[in-house]
Automatic annotation (TrEMBL):
PANTHER family named among the record's database cross-references: CYTOCHROME B-C1 COMPLEX SUBUNIT RIESKE, MITOCHONDRIAL
Gene3D superfamilies from the UniProt entry: Rieske [2Fe-2S] iron-sulphur domain
Native species: Deinococcus rhizophilus
Protein name in UniProt: Rieske 2Fe-2S domain-containing protein
One Pfam family it belongs to: Rieske
Length: 172
Protein backbone atom coordinates (compact mmCIF):
# COMPACT_ATOMS: atom_id res chain seq x y z
CA UNK A 1 0.00 0.00 0.00
CA UNK A 2 1.12 3.48 -0.69
CA UNK A 3 0.92 6.44 1.68
CA UNK A 4 -2.29 7.53 0.04
CA UNK A 5 -3.90 4.16 1.01
CA UNK A 6 -4.11 2.84 -2.54
CA UNK A 7 -2.86 -0.60 -3.43
CA UNK A 8 0.42 -0.59 -5.28
CA UNK A 9 0.23 -2.65 -8.45
CA UNK A 10 3.49 -4.19 -9.56
CA UNK A 11 4.29 -4.12 -13.26
CA UNK A 12 6.60 -7.09 -12.86
CA UNK A 13 6.01 -9.98 -10.48
CA UNK A 14 8.50 -10.30 -7.59
CA UNK A 15 11.67 -12.23 -8.42
CA UNK A 16 10.91 -15.02 -5.95
CA UNK A 17 7.90 -16.09 -8.02
CA UNK A 18 10.32 -17.24 -10.73
CA UNK A 19 12.00 -19.59 -8.23
CA UNK A 20 8.70 -20.84 -6.84
CA UNK A 21 6.62 -21.01 -9.93
CA UNK A 22 3.27 -22.00 -8.51
CA UNK A 23 0.12 -21.01 -10.27
CA UNK A 24 -1.51 -19.51 -7.18
CA UNK A 25 -4.85 -18.94 -8.90
CA UNK A 26 -5.17 -22.62 -9.82
CA UNK A 27 -4.06 -23.86 -6.40
CA UNK A 28 -6.72 -24.84 -3.89
CA UNK A 29 -6.08 -23.29 -0.52
CA UNK A 30 -6.82 -25.21 2.64
CA UNK A 31 -9.00 -23.20 4.96
CA UNK A 32 -8.46 -23.11 8.70
CA UNK A 33 -11.66 -25.06 9.17
CA UNK A 34 -10.51 -27.83 6.80
CA UNK A 35 -7.09 -27.97 8.46
CA UNK A 36 -8.65 -28.15 11.95
CA UNK A 37 -11.01 -30.89 10.79
CA UNK A 38 -8.04 -32.84 9.39
CA UNK A 39 -6.12 -32.50 12.66
CA UNK A 40 -9.15 -33.54 14.71
CA UNK A 41 -9.90 -36.61 12.61
CA UNK A 42 -6.23 -37.60 12.55
CA UNK A 43 -6.06 -37.32 16.34
CA UNK A 44 -9.20 -39.40 16.78
CA UNK A 45 -7.82 -42.01 14.38
CA UNK A 46 -4.53 -42.24 16.26
CA UNK A 47 -6.34 -42.45 19.62
CA UNK A 48 -8.55 -45.29 18.37
CA UNK A 49 -5.55 -47.11 16.89
CA UNK A 50 -3.53 -46.75 20.08
CA UNK A 51 -6.45 -47.99 22.17
CA UNK A 52 -6.87 -51.04 19.93
CA UNK A 53 -3.16 -51.85 20.09
CA UNK A 54 -3.16 -51.49 23.89
CA UNK A 55 -6.26 -53.67 24.16
CA UNK A 56 -4.80 -56.44 22.03
CA UNK A 57 -1.48 -56.24 23.90
CA UNK A 58 -3.07 -56.51 27.31
CA UNK A 59 -5.50 -59.27 26.39
CA UNK A 60 -5.46 -62.13 28.81
CA UNK A 61 -2.70 -64.48 27.83
CA UNK A 62 -3.22 -68.17 28.41
CA UNK A 63 -1.78 -69.06 31.79
CA UNK A 64 0.55 -72.00 31.64
CA UNK A 65 0.51 -73.79 34.96
CA UNK A 66 3.95 -74.19 36.48
CA UNK A 67 4.97 -77.44 38.08
CA UNK A 68 4.96 -77.11 41.87
CA UNK A 69 8.46 -76.59 43.22
CA UNK A 70 9.64 -77.84 46.61
CA UNK A 71 11.55 -75.03 48.32
CA UNK A 72 12.57 -76.91 51.48
CA UNK A 73 11.44 -77.73 54.98
CA UNK A 74 9.74 -74.89 56.86
CA UNK A 75 12.36 -75.00 59.65
CA UNK A 76 15.16 -74.49 57.06
CA UNK A 77 14.07 -70.84 56.74
CA UNK A 78 14.73 -68.78 59.88
CA UNK A 79 12.50 -65.73 60.40
CA UNK A 80 13.88 -62.55 58.77
CA UNK A 81 15.64 -64.38 55.93
CA UNK A 82 15.13 -64.65 52.19
CA UNK A 83 16.01 -67.07 49.42
CA UNK A 84 16.05 -66.70 45.63
CA UNK A 85 14.77 -69.61 43.56
CA UNK A 86 13.95 -70.31 39.92
CA UNK A 87 10.20 -70.24 39.41
CA UNK A 88 7.91 -70.55 37.44
CA UNK A 89 10.44 -71.45 34.72
CA UNK A 90 14.18 -71.90 34.45
CA UNK A 91 15.87 -68.51 34.26
CA UNK A 92 12.99 -66.68 35.95
CA UNK A 93 13.85 -65.93 39.54
CA UNK A 94 11.53 -65.42 42.46
CA UNK A 95 12.29 -64.36 46.02
CA UNK A 96 11.02 -66.10 49.17
CA UNK A 97 10.81 -64.10 52.41
CA UNK A 98 10.18 -65.52 55.87
CA UNK A 99 8.78 -62.79 58.07
CA UNK A 100 9.51 -62.29 61.76
CA UNK A 101 6.05 -63.64 62.63
CA UNK A 102 6.88 -66.93 60.85
CA UNK A 103 4.72 -66.34 57.77
CA UNK A 104 6.04 -66.60 54.22
CA UNK A 105 5.72 -64.44 51.10
CA UNK A 106 7.22 -64.94 47.67
CA UNK A 107 7.36 -62.69 44.61
CA UNK A 108 8.78 -62.61 41.14
CA UNK A 109 12.20 -61.02 41.61
CA UNK A 110 11.93 -58.75 38.57
CA UNK A 111 11.03 -55.12 39.32
CA UNK A 112 8.08 -54.02 37.15
CA UNK A 113 9.76 -50.66 36.47
CA UNK A 114 12.84 -51.70 34.46
CA UNK A 115 13.32 -55.38 35.28
CA UNK A 116 16.13 -55.10 37.84
CA UNK A 117 16.35 -57.82 40.50
CA UNK A 118 14.83 -56.86 43.83
CA UNK A 119 16.29 -58.07 47.12
CA UNK A 120 15.09 -58.32 50.70
CA UNK A 121 16.29 -55.69 53.18
CA UNK A 122 15.72 -57.43 56.57
CA UNK A 123 16.43 -54.36 58.75
CA UNK A 124 13.68 -52.32 57.05
CA UNK A 125 11.54 -55.36 56.20
CA UNK A 126 11.10 -54.20 52.61
CA UNK A 127 12.00 -55.43 49.17
CA UNK A 128 14.28 -52.99 47.39
CA UNK A 129 15.07 -52.40 43.74
CA UNK A 130 18.59 -50.93 43.71
CA UNK A 131 18.34 -49.50 40.18
CA UNK A 132 16.07 -46.56 40.98
CA UNK A 133 15.36 -46.95 44.70
CA UNK A 134 11.99 -48.61 44.38
CA UNK A 135 10.64 -50.13 47.60
CA UNK A 136 7.98 -52.81 48.00
CA UNK A 137 6.11 -54.08 51.05
CA UNK A 138 7.63 -57.46 51.96
CA UNK A 139 4.27 -58.84 53.14
CA UNK A 140 2.13 -57.83 50.14
CA UNK A 141 4.52 -56.93 47.30
CA UNK A 142 2.79 -53.56 46.89
CA UNK A 143 4.77 -50.44 45.98
CA UNK A 144 5.82 -48.31 48.95
CA UNK A 145 7.84 -45.68 47.09
CA UNK A 146 9.93 -45.04 44.00
CA UNK A 147 9.26 -45.19 40.29
CA UNK A 148 7.50 -48.60 40.01
CA UNK A 149 3.83 -48.09 39.19
CA UNK A 150 2.66 -51.57 40.22
CA UNK A 151 3.60 -54.22 42.74
CA UNK A 152 5.58 -57.42 42.34
CA UNK A 153 4.09 -60.60 40.90
CA UNK A 154 2.98 -62.84 43.77
CA UNK A 155 4.10 -66.47 43.95
CA UNK A 156 1.52 -68.72 45.57
CA UNK A 157 2.92 -70.86 48.38
CA UNK A 158 1.65 -73.95 50.20
CA UNK A 159 2.89 -75.83 53.24
CA UNK A 160 2.58 -79.60 52.78
CA UNK A 161 3.68 -81.94 55.57
CA UNK A 162 6.17 -79.42 56.95
CA UNK A 163 7.58 -78.56 53.52
CA UNK A 164 7.20 -75.30 51.64
CA UNK A 165 6.12 -75.43 48.00
CA UNK A 166 5.76 -72.78 45.27
CA UNK A 167 2.58 -73.75 43.45
CA UNK A 168 1.66 -70.88 41.10
CA UNK A 169 1.94 -67.28 40.03
CA UNK A 170 5.21 -65.37 39.86
CA UNK A 171 5.06 -64.91 36.09
CA UNK A 172 7.04 -62.03 34.64
Amino acid sequence: MTKSGKKKILKHPPHWKDDFSVDWDATDYVSRREFTRFLGLSSVGMAVGTTLIAGVGSAVKPVREAEPLRLGRVEDFPPGTSKAFEFPEKGQYSLLVRHEDGSFSAYGQKCPHLGCAVYYEPHDRVLECPCHEGFFDAKTGDVISGPPQRGLNVVELEVRDGELWAVGGGGH
